[in-house]
């Protein structure tokens, strides 16, 4: 009888999730993987929609599943998401993938007892932890270790700053509670528990270091040297660097933060950016327009260790900076041997309607890539090639919302670079090894499904140059259109891309949201582009190689509904005014107008 029941069930559930399998109370029995994915996406969106509340001492911070930029959607990125593929695959895998007898026993057990699996999520622990600390740190009183303080300079004397107990939040427990809620499809408020923060160093331990500190100071002034340059560290600066530190025992050390601040100023004189060889196409021929040259970079950690060893340990008064030479990746002696013969692929995207800062960043990113060579068999990392993205490399910031705070952040516009490069690699027929779509549909990247988001260090866009020859990247901007071209040697591969992608599971967006912030002048408003429907998208790429080998891939993207967001400037004193009835601090006010409201 059991064999007959299992045999009948095998027919009923062929290609479907087996009987009595649940995900957090949701019955997936008899569903195909696609049906189960759609059902769980809907449930996850319901959990995500209101945001997640964290509370400590009457202050409430609402964490969204995304870091959102009301001024540039490129800076909007997921910090947690439902991993539908992995969750559904685990449900479908029950009763499959083992030997016949184990599968039979598992199926038989399901007739009498349900199997409830937990939902699986992608969870950016570090960024969520940073957001929580940024929003709640003002309510904490960290412990203070005992340390040395200068009381007189002539003659030099020290006293001990007393140690103090502190109170901090247990962020690890808060994250654990949050994850537990998510895996059970719950959206419960998470309360941050307080814990006592104990000082690492006692007064009696720090006081033992005073004689050693006085002896060290006698060695001042100290000189840092590099080539023919010297930087003087006088007695006052050196005294300020001294600090008590504890590992197994308490000892006198250099304050890493203060030394690093000093070295950062020196680095401005020492560091030299590496230059990669760059090329351009002139009258159908490759021409070099920038030769490669090595760079130099001050190594902060090794220089600090050198200070400890030479000055601290050996009592030397001159210490050499540790400066690294960074070789260029590309050093081509004969540009005629590159194998760059013709145009092998083009990718385009349109950024019409972009604000000034975004246009500026797109231009900077595009110029960084223009003329670069991609070696044969190299896995190209777009994030790696773009390098540092901040004011020092010419980029401009935009505002992002993290919890209840709005802060400036760099990188707006670079997803235009990522999307264009993704399309270029696709239409060149190169194997793409890493690509992530945006959380939401963005007007700059239509048709939906053919976009790629990047953010340092992850997500990245990776692909391999498998042409057997160098590829030369050429970039240009024509009006509102960003164009990337790949020049190289064709091997006869044929590329077929389904365009536009298929759209399905369309979902309507919620009403516009306004968030008050003191980062803008009172009354000023900054908004995103208009809201967009959520959807799933899919398209197929097919590469046929000369030897008959075929590489066919289905590219799937899931987009949540985009709620247009506006930042509205609010006077600082109004934001910080306590409520009349309790001690809860006033948070940025969120307004949800009726569905007829529109984004300016």
Description:
The protein is α+β, with helices and mostly antiparallel strands and 600 residues long. Helices cover 27% and strands 31% of the residues. The protein is built from 15 helices and 40 strands. Helix 2 packs across helix 3. The chain starts with a helix and ends in a 9-residue tail after the last strand. 30% of the residues are buried.
What does this entry show, briefly?
This protein is of the alpha+beta class.
Question: Which helices and strands appear, and what pairs or packs with what?
Answer:
Layout: H1 2-12, E1 21-23, E2 26-27, H2 33-48, E3 52-56, E4 59-63, E5 66-67, E6 77-78, E7 80-82, H3 84-93, H4 100-110, E8 115-117, E9 121-123, H5 125-136, E10 147-153, E11 156-161, E12 166-169, H6 171-183, E13 190-191, E14 194-197, H7 203-207, H8 210-217, E15 222-226, E16 229-233, H9 235-241, E17 242-246, E18 250-254, H10 256-270, E19 278-282, E20 285-290, E21 295-298, H11 300-313, E22 318-320, E23 323-326, E24 342-350, H12 356-369, E25 373-374, E26 379-381, H13 382-386, E27 398-402, E28 405-409, H14 414-428, E29 432-434, E30 462-464, E31 471-478, E32 481-488, E33 494-497, E34 502-507, E35 513-517, E36 525-527, E37 534-544, E38 550-559, E39 565-569, H15 572-575, E40 590-591
Parallel strand pairs: 1-8, 3-13, 15-22, 35-39
Antiparallel strand pairs: 1-2, 3-4, 5-6, 7-9, 10-11, 12-14, 15-16, 17-18, 19-20, 21-23, 24-32, 25-31, 26-30, 27-28, 29-30, 31-32, 33-37, 34-37, 35-40, 36-39, 37-38
Helix pairs in contact: 2-3
């Amino acid at each position: 009888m059991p064999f007959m029941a299992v045999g009948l069930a095998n027919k009923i559930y062929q290609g479907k999730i087996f009987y009595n399998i649940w995900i957090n109370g949701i019955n997936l029995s008899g569903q195909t993987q696609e049906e189960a994915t759609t059902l769980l996406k809907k449930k996850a969106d319901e959990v995500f929609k209101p945001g997640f509340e964290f509370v400590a001492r009457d202050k409430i911070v609402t964490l969204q599943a995304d870091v959102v930029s009301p001024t540039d959607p490129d800076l909007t990125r997921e910090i947690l998401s439902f991993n539908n593929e992995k969750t559904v695959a685990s449900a479908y895998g029950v009763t499959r993938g083992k030997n016949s007898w184990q599968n039979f026993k598992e199926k038989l057990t399901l007739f009498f007892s349900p199997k409830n699996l937990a939902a699986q999520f992608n969870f950016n622990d570090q960024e969520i932890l940073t957001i929580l600390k940024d929003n709640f740190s003002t309510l904490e009183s960290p412990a203070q270790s005992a340390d040395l303080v200068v009381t007189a300079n002539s003659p030099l004397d020290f006293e001990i700053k007393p140690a103090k107990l502190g109170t901090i939040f247990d962020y690890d427990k808060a994250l654990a509670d949050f994850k537990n809620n998510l895996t059970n499809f719950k959206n419960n408020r998470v309360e941050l528990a307080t814990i006592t923060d104990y000082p690492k160093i006692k007064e009696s331990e720090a006081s033992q270091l005073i004689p050693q500190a006085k002896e060290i100071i006698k060695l001042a002034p100290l000189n840092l040297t590099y080539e023919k340059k010297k930087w003087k560290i006088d007695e006052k600066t050196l005294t300020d660097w001294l600090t008590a530190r504890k590992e197994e025992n308490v000892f006198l050390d250099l304050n890493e933060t203060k030394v690093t601040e000093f070295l950062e100023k020196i680095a401005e004189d020492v560091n030299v950016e590496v230059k990669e060889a760059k090329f351009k196409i002139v009258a159908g021929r490759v021409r070099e327009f920038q030769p490669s040259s090595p760079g130099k970079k001050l190594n902060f950690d090794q220089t600090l260790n050198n200070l400890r060893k030479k000055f601290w340990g050996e009592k030397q008064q001159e210490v050499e900076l540790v400066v690294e030479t960074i070789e260029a990746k590309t050093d081509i002696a004969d540009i005629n041997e590159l194998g760059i013969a013709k145009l092998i692929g083009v990718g385009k995207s349109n950024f019409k309607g972009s604000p000034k800062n975004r246009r500026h960043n797109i231009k900077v990113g595009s110029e960084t890539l223009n003329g670069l060579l991609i070696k044969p068999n190299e896995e190209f990392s777009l994030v790696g090639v773009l390098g540092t993205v901040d004011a020092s490399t010419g980029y401009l910031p935009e505002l992002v919302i993290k919890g209840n705070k709005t802060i400036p952040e760099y990188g707006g516009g670079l997803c235009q670079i990522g999307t264009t490069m993704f399309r270029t690699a696709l239409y060149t027929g190169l194997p793409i090894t890493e690509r992530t779509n945006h959380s939401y549909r963005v007007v700059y990247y239509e048709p939906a499904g053919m976009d790629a988001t990047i953010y340092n260090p992850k997500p990245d866009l990776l692909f391999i140059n498998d042409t057997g020859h160098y590829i030369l990247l050429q970039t240009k901007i024509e009006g509102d259109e960003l164009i990337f071209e790949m020049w190289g040697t064709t091997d006869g591969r044929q590329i077929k891309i389904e365009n536009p992608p298929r759209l399905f599971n369309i979902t309507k967006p919620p009403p516009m949201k306004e968030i008050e912030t003191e980062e803008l002048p009172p009354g000023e408003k900054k908004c995103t582009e208009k809201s967009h429907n959520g959807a799933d998208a899919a398209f197929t790429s097919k590469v046929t190689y000369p030897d008959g080998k075929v590489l066919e891939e289905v590219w799937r993207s899931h987009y949540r509904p985009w709620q247009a967001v506006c930042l509205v400037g609010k006077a600082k004193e109004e934001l910080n005014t306590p409520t009349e009835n309790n001690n809860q601090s006033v948070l940025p006010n969120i307004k949800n107008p009726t569905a007829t409201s529109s984004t300016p």
